[in-house]
Every structure is written in C-alpha cells, then in structure tokens.
Amino acid sequence: MAEIQPSTKKKAQPKAKSVGEAKYVLPFVWMLLMTAASFVLVSTGFVPLRWLIPIIILLAIAQVMVQLFTFMHLEDKGTRMFIIFTSGGAFVAVTCILAMLYLA
C-alpha cells in the first residue's frame, strides 16, 4: 500500500505591499502637506496678502503636477499629446487671467 504523506502546505501569510502600491503613498503625503500648508498660511495670517496669493498658486501648481505625474501616469508612453494640449491650455488660461488682472 502507498503511504500517506502529511500535507506540507504553508499557512497563508499576509502579502507584503507591492512596489506598485507603495509608490503612491509618498506623493499622497506630499499633496496632503501642500494642502495643509495652504490652509495654515491663510488661517494664521503669517504671510502678507501680497505674498500669500502667489505662494498658494505655486503650491496649487505643484500639487497638480504631482497628481498628474503620479496618478495619471504621464511618465508612461503615449501621453505626449495629452501633455502638449494640457500645457497649451494652461498657457492660454494663465495668459487670459493675467490679461484680465492687468486690464481691470
């Protein structure tokens, strides 16, 4: 008769975070910090209004860039036209906003 061997199955172990999941954590933390910095700057009045608006705009632009490159995968192939059209649209929008500010 054939001998019955005990099972040598390993117990299920929790999966370690994959590199794909972990690469989103740091950019997410940066975005939270930029948002918190904006709120703190506005609520404390630490920075004069003259400097506050440009600082918040720079933080917003940085946050948009982090979101686009992290969560929209703009570093992948095939996104060149998207980047060109988005950059062109942003340039036109900024030009129109500046023109309205200076003409008002």
From TrEMBL:
Regions crossing the membrane: 24-45, 51-70, 82-103
Subcellular location: Cell membrane
The UniProt record lists the keyword Transferase: no
Major place of residence: membrane
Keywords: Cell membrane, Membrane, Transmembrane, Transmembrane helix
GO CC terms: plasma membrane
Membrane topology: Multi-pass membrane protein
Protein name: Cytochrome c oxidase subunit 4
Protein's organism: Marininema mesophilum
